[in-house]
Protein backbone atom coordinates (compact mmCIF):
# COMPACT_ATOMS: atom_id res chain seq x y z
CA UNK A 1 0.00 0.00 0.00
CA UNK A 2 1.40 3.39 -1.03
CA UNK A 3 1.73 5.85 1.82
CA UNK A 4 0.28 9.31 1.10
CA UNK A 5 2.88 12.05 1.26
CA UNK A 6 2.33 14.99 3.58
CA UNK A 7 3.46 18.42 2.45
CA UNK A 8 4.24 21.49 4.50
CA UNK A 9 5.22 25.13 4.50
CA UNK A 10 7.34 27.06 6.97
CA UNK A 11 7.11 30.82 7.33
CA UNK A 12 9.85 32.67 9.17
CA UNK A 13 11.58 35.96 9.74
CA UNK A 14 14.37 37.09 12.02
CA UNK A 15 15.99 40.42 12.75
CA UNK A 16 19.66 39.56 13.09
CA UNK A 17 22.85 41.24 11.90
CA UNK A 18 24.10 39.39 8.80
CA UNK A 19 27.74 40.17 8.01
CA UNK A 20 27.87 38.58 4.54
CA UNK A 21 24.47 38.79 2.85
CA UNK A 22 25.75 37.49 -0.49
CA UNK A 23 27.16 34.36 1.12
CA UNK A 24 23.82 33.55 2.74
CA UNK A 25 21.98 34.14 -0.54
CA UNK A 26 24.34 31.90 -2.49
CA UNK A 27 24.16 29.17 0.15
CA UNK A 28 20.36 29.07 0.08
CA UNK A 29 20.19 29.27 -3.72
CA UNK A 30 22.33 26.14 -3.97
CA UNK A 31 21.15 24.27 -0.89
CA UNK A 32 17.36 24.54 -1.25
CA UNK A 33 17.11 22.92 -4.71
CA UNK A 34 19.59 20.24 -3.61
CA UNK A 35 17.21 19.37 -0.78
CA UNK A 36 14.26 19.33 -3.22
CA UNK A 37 12.55 22.28 -1.56
CA UNK A 38 10.86 25.38 -2.97
CA UNK A 39 11.22 28.83 -1.46
CA UNK A 40 10.78 32.59 -1.47
CA UNK A 41 13.42 34.11 0.83
CA UNK A 42 14.56 37.71 1.23
CA UNK A 43 17.99 38.29 2.83
CA UNK A 44 19.14 41.68 4.14
CA UNK A 45 21.83 43.01 6.44
CA UNK A 46 19.18 43.26 9.14
CA UNK A 47 17.85 39.69 8.79
CA UNK A 48 15.76 37.25 6.76
CA UNK A 49 12.12 36.88 5.79
CA UNK A 50 10.32 34.27 3.70
CA UNK A 51 8.92 30.78 3.39
CA UNK A 52 9.94 27.28 2.28
CA UNK A 53 7.71 24.47 1.01
CA UNK A 54 8.17 20.76 0.34
CA UNK A 55 7.55 17.34 1.81
CA UNK A 56 6.64 18.03 5.44
CA UNK A 57 9.37 15.86 6.95
CA UNK A 58 11.94 17.50 4.66
CA UNK A 59 10.76 20.98 5.68
CA UNK A 60 11.06 20.08 9.36
CA UNK A 61 14.52 18.61 8.84
CA UNK A 62 15.63 21.66 6.87
CA UNK A 63 14.70 24.02 9.71
CA UNK A 64 16.93 21.97 12.04
CA UNK A 65 19.63 22.02 9.37
CA UNK A 66 19.50 25.83 9.13
CA UNK A 67 19.89 26.20 12.89
CA UNK A 68 23.13 24.25 12.70
CA UNK A 69 24.70 25.12 9.34
CA UNK A 70 23.58 28.78 9.33
CA UNK A 71 23.39 29.22 13.08
CA UNK A 72 24.62 32.80 12.98
CA UNK A 73 21.38 33.65 11.15
CA UNK A 74 18.80 31.04 12.16
CA UNK A 75 19.79 29.98 15.70
CA UNK A 76 16.77 31.67 17.31
CA UNK A 77 14.38 31.93 14.36
CA UNK A 78 10.72 31.21 15.02
CA UNK A 79 9.87 28.65 12.31
CA UNK A 80 6.09 28.50 11.81
CA UNK A 81 5.43 25.12 10.16
CA UNK A 82 1.98 24.28 8.75
CA UNK A 83 0.56 21.58 6.49
CA UNK A 84 -0.31 22.32 2.87
CA UNK A 85 -1.29 20.38 -0.23
CA UNK A 86 0.97 19.43 -3.12
CA UNK A 87 -0.86 21.97 -5.28
CA UNK A 88 -0.01 24.72 -2.77
CA UNK A 89 3.76 24.22 -2.97
CA UNK A 90 5.72 27.19 -4.29
CA UNK A 91 7.26 26.97 -7.72
CA UNK A 92 11.03 26.84 -7.76
CA UNK A 93 13.47 28.72 -5.54
CA UNK A 94 13.74 32.49 -5.35
CA UNK A 95 16.31 33.90 -2.93
CA UNK A 96 17.40 37.51 -3.26
CA UNK A 97 19.32 40.27 -1.53
CA UNK A 98 17.23 43.16 -0.25
CA UNK A 99 17.72 46.46 1.52
CA UNK A 100 15.42 45.37 4.36
CA UNK A 101 13.42 42.38 5.52
CA UNK A 102 10.26 44.44 5.37
CA UNK A 103 10.42 47.78 3.58
CA UNK A 104 8.77 50.59 5.50
CA UNK A 105 10.73 53.75 4.66
CA UNK A 106 12.31 54.76 1.35
CA UNK A 107 15.21 56.77 2.77
CA UNK A 108 18.05 54.49 3.88
CA UNK A 109 19.26 56.85 6.63
CA UNK A 110 15.78 57.25 8.09
CA UNK A 111 15.26 53.49 8.04
CA UNK A 112 18.63 52.86 9.68
CA UNK A 113 17.75 55.34 12.42
CA UNK A 114 14.39 53.64 12.93
CA UNK A 115 16.02 50.19 13.07
CA UNK A 116 18.32 51.30 15.88
CA UNK A 117 15.42 52.20 18.17
CA UNK A 118 13.68 49.89 20.60
CA UNK A 119 10.77 47.87 19.26
CA UNK A 120 7.50 47.52 21.14
CA UNK A 121 7.38 44.69 23.69
CA UNK A 122 5.80 41.41 22.57
CA UNK A 123 2.76 39.75 24.08
CA UNK A 124 2.43 35.98 23.74
CA UNK A 125 -0.83 34.74 22.17
CA UNK A 126 -2.06 33.84 25.67
CA UNK A 127 -1.16 37.26 27.11
CA UNK A 128 -2.73 38.96 24.08
CA UNK A 129 -5.97 36.97 24.47
CA UNK A 130 -6.18 37.66 28.20
CA UNK A 131 -5.60 41.40 27.69
CA UNK A 132 -8.36 41.57 25.08
CA UNK A 133 -10.62 39.52 27.33
CA UNK A 134 -10.10 42.02 30.17
CA UNK A 135 -10.95 44.91 27.87
CA UNK A 136 -10.83 48.50 29.01
CA UNK A 137 -11.52 51.97 27.65
CA UNK A 138 -7.81 52.54 27.05
CA UNK A 139 -7.37 49.72 24.51
CA UNK A 140 -7.21 50.10 20.73
CA UNK A 141 -6.33 47.47 18.13
CA UNK A 142 -4.03 48.50 15.29
CA UNK A 143 -4.00 46.21 12.24
CA UNK A 144 -0.94 47.06 10.11
CA UNK A 145 -1.82 44.69 7.28
CA UNK A 146 -3.21 45.77 3.92
CA UNK A 147 -6.81 46.46 3.03
CA UNK A 148 -7.34 43.24 1.11
CA UNK A 149 -6.06 41.29 4.15
CA UNK A 150 -8.12 43.05 6.81
CA UNK A 151 -11.21 42.75 4.62
CA UNK A 152 -11.44 38.96 5.01
CA UNK A 153 -10.31 38.63 8.63
CA UNK A 154 -9.46 40.69 11.71
CA UNK A 155 -9.67 40.80 15.48
CA UNK A 156 -13.12 41.75 16.71
CA UNK A 157 -13.56 42.00 20.47
CA UNK A 158 -17.16 42.43 21.67
CA UNK A 159 -18.13 44.58 24.63
CA UNK A 160 -17.53 42.98 28.02
CA UNK A 161 -20.71 43.18 30.09
CA UNK A 162 -23.57 45.63 29.80
CA UNK A 163 -21.40 48.67 30.51
CA UNK A 164 -18.47 47.57 28.36
CA UNK A 165 -17.46 48.93 24.97
CA UNK A 166 -16.23 47.11 21.89
CA UNK A 167 -12.47 47.57 21.53
CA UNK A 168 -11.87 49.99 18.60
CA UNK A 169 -9.99 48.53 15.63
CA UNK A 170 -7.90 50.94 13.58
CA UNK A 171 -7.44 49.85 9.97
CA UNK A 172 -5.17 52.15 7.90
CA UNK A 173 -6.70 50.69 4.70
CA UNK A 174 -3.35 50.56 2.92
CA UNK A 175 -2.53 48.83 -0.34
CA UNK A 176 1.08 48.24 0.70
CA UNK A 177 3.05 48.26 3.94
CA UNK A 178 5.01 51.33 2.79
CA UNK A 179 1.85 53.43 3.15
CA UNK A 180 1.78 52.96 6.95
CA UNK A 181 4.14 55.94 7.57
CA UNK A 182 1.85 58.16 5.50
CA UNK A 183 -1.09 57.06 7.64
CA UNK A 184 0.80 57.82 10.86
CA UNK A 185 1.92 61.21 9.51
CA UNK A 186 -1.66 62.50 9.63
CA UNK A 187 -2.45 64.21 12.94
CA UNK A 188 -6.06 63.02 12.82
CA UNK A 189 -4.95 59.40 12.53
CA UNK A 190 -2.30 59.70 15.20
CA UNK A 191 -4.82 61.19 17.63
CA UNK A 192 -6.59 57.82 17.78
CA UNK A 193 -3.54 56.36 19.56
CA UNK A 194 -2.72 59.12 22.03
CA UNK A 195 -3.34 58.17 25.65
CA UNK A 196 -4.23 54.62 24.61
CA UNK A 197 -2.75 51.17 25.06
CA UNK A 198 -2.11 50.13 21.45
CA UNK A 199 -2.31 46.43 20.54
CA UNK A 200 -0.59 45.99 17.15
CA UNK A 201 -0.80 42.89 15.00
CA UNK A 202 -0.03 41.54 11.55
CA UNK A 203 0.14 38.08 9.96
CA UNK A 204 3.39 36.67 11.29
CA UNK A 205 4.93 39.55 13.22
CA UNK A 206 7.55 41.05 10.91
CA UNK A 207 5.55 44.11 9.85
CA UNK A 208 4.84 45.05 13.47
CA UNK A 209 8.54 45.01 14.36
CA UNK A 210 9.34 48.20 12.48
CA UNK A 211 5.86 49.75 12.47
CA UNK A 212 5.66 49.53 16.26
CA UNK A 213 8.97 51.38 16.54
CA UNK A 214 7.70 54.06 14.17
CA UNK A 215 4.49 54.50 16.15
CA UNK A 216 6.35 54.68 19.48
CA UNK A 217 8.81 57.26 18.17
CA UNK A 218 6.02 59.31 16.59
CA UNK A 219 3.87 59.32 19.73
CA UNK A 220 6.85 59.95 22.02
CA UNK A 221 6.57 60.28 25.77
CA UNK A 222 5.07 57.41 27.72
CA UNK A 223 3.38 55.69 24.80
CA UNK A 224 2.05 52.18 25.47
CA UNK A 225 2.46 50.02 22.39
CA UNK A 226 2.49 46.21 22.31
CA UNK A 227 2.79 43.74 19.45
CA UNK A 228 1.43 40.21 19.08
CA UNK A 229 4.32 37.74 19.19
CA UNK A 230 4.24 35.50 16.12
CA UNK A 231 1.31 37.45 14.72
CA UNK A 232 -2.12 36.08 13.88
CA UNK A 233 -0.43 32.83 12.80
CA UNK A 234 0.72 31.92 16.31
CA UNK A 235 -2.53 33.19 17.83
CA UNK A 236 -4.61 30.87 15.62
CA UNK A 237 -2.34 27.97 16.52
CA UNK A 238 -3.09 28.67 20.20
CA UNK A 239 -6.80 29.39 19.56
CA UNK A 240 -7.61 27.32 16.44
CA UNK A 241 -11.34 27.87 16.81
CA UNK A 242 -10.61 31.55 16.15
CA UNK A 243 -10.69 33.12 19.60
CA UNK A 244 -11.17 36.84 19.06
CA UNK A 245 -10.08 36.61 15.42
CA UNK A 246 -12.98 36.61 12.98
CA UNK A 247 -12.83 35.35 9.39
CA UNK A 248 -9.74 34.08 7.57
CA UNK A 249 -6.08 35.03 7.61
CA UNK A 250 -4.72 36.08 4.23
CA UNK A 251 -1.31 34.58 3.38
CA UNK A 252 1.02 35.44 0.48
CA UNK A 253 1.85 31.86 -0.46
CA UNK A 254 -0.32 29.75 -2.77
CA UNK A 255 -2.84 28.84 -0.04
CA UNK A 256 -4.10 32.46 -0.15
CA UNK A 257 -6.16 32.24 3.06
CA UNK A 258 -6.28 29.95 6.09
CA UNK A 259 -8.16 29.41 9.34
CA UNK A 260 -6.99 27.95 12.63
CA UNK A 261 -7.38 24.24 11.78
CA UNK A 262 -5.39 24.75 8.56
CA UNK A 263 -2.31 25.50 10.67
CA UNK A 264 -2.53 22.28 12.69
CA UNK A 265 -1.57 18.70 11.98
CA UNK A 266 -4.56 16.82 10.47
CA UNK A 267 -5.09 14.68 13.57
CA UNK A 268 -5.32 17.82 15.74
CA UNK A 269 -7.41 19.80 13.25
CA UNK A 270 -10.30 17.31 13.21
CA UNK A 271 -11.00 17.98 16.89
CA UNK A 272 -11.41 21.74 16.37
CA UNK A 273 -14.79 23.39 15.90
CA UNK A 274 -13.64 26.38 13.92
CA UNK A 275 -15.75 29.43 13.18
CA UNK A 276 -16.65 29.41 9.48
CA UNK A 277 -18.09 32.93 9.31
CA UNK A 278 -17.07 34.77 6.14
CA UNK A 279 -16.51 38.46 6.90
CA UNK A 280 -15.35 39.52 3.42
CA UNK A 281 -17.81 40.73 0.78
CA UNK A 282 -17.63 41.12 -2.98
CA UNK A 283 -17.41 44.83 -3.75
CA UNK A 284 -19.12 44.44 -7.13
CA UNK A 285 -22.29 43.36 -5.37
CA UNK A 286 -21.78 46.08 -2.74
CA UNK A 287 -21.93 48.95 -5.23
CA UNK A 288 -25.37 47.89 -6.41
CA UNK A 289 -26.76 47.59 -2.90
CA UNK A 290 -26.39 43.84 -2.47
CA UNK A 291 -24.08 41.71 -0.33
CA UNK A 292 -22.24 38.54 -1.21
CA UNK A 293 -19.87 36.85 1.28
CA UNK A 294 -16.55 36.31 -0.42
CA UNK A 295 -13.01 35.33 0.56
CA UNK A 296 -11.90 33.04 -2.27
CA UNK A 297 -8.56 34.65 -2.97
CA UNK A 298 -7.48 33.34 -6.35
CA UNK A 299 -8.92 32.90 -9.82
CA UNK A 300 -12.41 32.12 -8.57
CA UNK A 301 -15.67 33.82 -9.55
CA UNK A 302 -18.94 34.09 -7.68
CA UNK A 303 -21.87 32.72 -9.72
CA UNK A 304 -23.77 35.64 -11.20
CA UNK A 305 -20.90 38.13 -10.90
CA UNK A 306 -18.34 38.28 -13.71
CA UNK A 307 -16.00 40.53 -11.77
CA UNK A 308 -15.87 38.72 -8.44
CA UNK A 309 -12.21 37.82 -8.29
CA UNK A 310 -9.25 38.55 -6.08
CA UNK A 311 -8.42 41.71 -8.01
CA UNK A 312 -11.89 43.10 -7.31
CA UNK A 313 -11.65 42.74 -3.56
CA UNK A 314 -8.32 44.48 -3.21
CA UNK A 315 -8.26 47.09 -5.95
CA UNK A 316 -9.05 50.17 -3.85
CA UNK A 317 -8.47 51.27 -0.27
CA UNK A 318 -10.60 54.41 -0.49
CA UNK A 319 -13.45 54.06 -2.93
CA UNK A 320 -15.38 51.15 -4.37
CA UNK A 321 -15.62 51.16 -8.19
CA UNK A 322 -18.63 52.88 -9.73
CA UNK A 323 -20.04 49.96 -11.69
CA UNK A 324 -23.31 48.41 -12.64
CA UNK A 325 -23.94 44.83 -11.60
CA UNK A 326 -21.86 42.43 -13.67
CA UNK A 327 -19.26 44.98 -14.80
CA UNK A 328 -15.59 44.28 -14.04
CA UNK A 329 -13.09 46.98 -12.99
CA UNK A 330 -9.49 47.06 -14.08
CA UNK A 331 -7.63 44.71 -11.70
CA UNK A 332 -5.32 46.08 -9.05
CA UNK A 333 -2.11 44.03 -8.99
CA UNK A 334 -0.80 43.29 -5.51
CA UNK A 335 2.92 42.81 -5.06
CA UNK A 336 4.35 39.94 -3.08
CA UNK A 337 4.22 41.26 0.48
CA UNK A 338 5.77 40.37 3.80
CA UNK A 339 4.36 37.88 6.24
Search tags:
29% helix, Alpha-Beta Plaits, 5-stranded mixed beta sheet, 14 strands, 3 domains, alpha/beta, disordered C terminus, 5-stranded parallel beta sheet, 13 helices, 339 residues
Gyration radius (Cα, Å) is 20 Å
The CATH homology group name of the largest domain: Rhodanese-like domain
- In the sheet with the most strands, the strands line up as 4-1-3-2-5
The main pleated sheet reads as: 5 strands, mixed
Description:
- Residues 323-339 have a biased composition (Basic and acidic residues).
- This is STR6 protein.
- Pfam families: Rhodanese, UPF0176_N.
- Residues 135-244 form the Rhodanese domain.
- Residues 316-339 are annotated as: Disordered.
- The chain contains 13 helices and 14 strands.
- It has 339 residues and is an alpha/beta fold.
- The protein has 3 domains: 7-101, Alpha-Beta Plaits (2-Layer Sandwich), CATH 3.30.70; 122-269, Rhodanese-like domain (Oxidized Rhodanese, domain 1, 3-Layer(aba) Sandwich); 281-332, no CATH class.
- Strands 4-1-3-2-5 form a 5-stranded mixed β-sheet.
- A hairpin with a 6-residue loop joins strand 13 (249-250) and strand 14 (257-258).
- The longest helix has 14 residues, at 21-34.
- It is globular and about 55 Å long.
- The two termini are 39 Å apart.
Draw up the topology in text.
Elements: E1 7-15, H1 21-34, E2 38-44, E3 47-55, H2 56-69, H3 71-74, E4 80-84, E5 93-97, H4 108-115, E6 122-123, H5 125-134, E7 139-143, H6 147-150, E8 153-155, E9 169-170, H7 180-185, H8 187-190, E10 197-201, H9 206-219, E11 224-228, H10 231-238, E12 245-247, E13 249-250, E14 257-258, H11 266-269, H12 283-286, H13 310-313
Parallel strand pairs: 2-5, 6-11, 7-9, 7-10, 10-11
Antiparallel strand pairs: 1-3, 1-4, 2-3, 8-12, 13-14
Amino acid sequence: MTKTRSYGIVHFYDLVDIKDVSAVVEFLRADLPACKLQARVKVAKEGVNGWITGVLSDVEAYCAHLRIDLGTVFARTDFKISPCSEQQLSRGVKVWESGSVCKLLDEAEAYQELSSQDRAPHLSPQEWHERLEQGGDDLVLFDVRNFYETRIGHFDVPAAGEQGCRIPRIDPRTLSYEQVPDFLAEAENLAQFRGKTVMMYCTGGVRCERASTLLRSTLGGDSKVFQLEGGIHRYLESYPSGGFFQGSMYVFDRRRFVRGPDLLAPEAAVAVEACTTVVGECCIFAVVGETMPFEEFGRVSIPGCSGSKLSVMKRSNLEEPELDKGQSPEPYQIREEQY
